[in-house]
Amino acid sequence: xxxxxxxxxxxxxxxxxxxxxxxxxxxxxxxxxxxxxxxxxxxxxxxxxxxxxxxxxxxxxxxxxxxxxxxxxxxxxx
Length: 78
Fold this sequence. Notes:
78 residues, five-stranded antiparallel beta sheet
């Protein structure tokens, strides 16, 4: 079972600690703590994989599109 969601970043706060983005048409706030430790911070327009409120992986636009498509197929997880 997949509990993560894909979020497209809309705004990163001035401290690079938190971001606001869209996931499935709704606004979500995420922590960037894990990505900050890796030195891989997103900017507006980037896609991230989020689990329990933490952005855990920065995704390319192609990766995000493939995952979103797969989740919309029969048997996929929306």
